[in-house]
Amino acid sequence: MKTDISDLRKRIVAESQQYTKQTPGEDEFTIFDFMEWTEIERDPARRALIAMEKDAKVSKRKGKINGASCNVYKMIG
């Protein structure tokens, strides 16, 4: 049985999405979004997100925006 290389590539790309740095999805946000929404400065926002991650309120992954690496958060539940 011959594997269609195009289908194989699509499958590899789809499966690798969770392991590579991707831009935030529609249900994700960055610290900058959080700062804007809550109207707080960076340090308090960072501490809040760390606490929320510890309390399993948000998950965190590495992402990319405009070629720069950043943390991307997503609400749990």
Write up this protein.
The chain is an alpha+beta fold. The protein has one domain (21-75). The chain contains 3 helices and 3 strands, in the order αβααββ. The chain has a 3-stranded antiparallel sheet with strand order 1-3-2. The longest helix is centred in the middle third of the chain and has 13 residues, at 42-54. It is elongated and about 55 Å long. The N and C termini lie far apart (42 Å).
Enumerate the spans where pLDDT stays under 50 for 5 or more consecutive residues.
none
Principal-axis shape:
elongated
Give the N-terminus to C-terminus distance in angstroms. 42 Å
- Provide the domain count: 1
**Spatial order of the strands in the main sheet?**
1-3-2
The residue-averaged pLDDT reads 90
Q: What share of residues are in beta strands?
A: 15-25%
Over the alpha carbons, how many angstroms does the gyration radius reach?
16 Å
Give me the count of strands. 3
Tell me the helix content.
40-55%
Order of helices and strands: HEHHEE
Q: Tell me the major beta sheet.
A: 3 strands, antiparallel
Number of helical stretches of at least 4 residues: 3
Q: What class do helices, strands and sheet pairing give?
A: alpha+beta
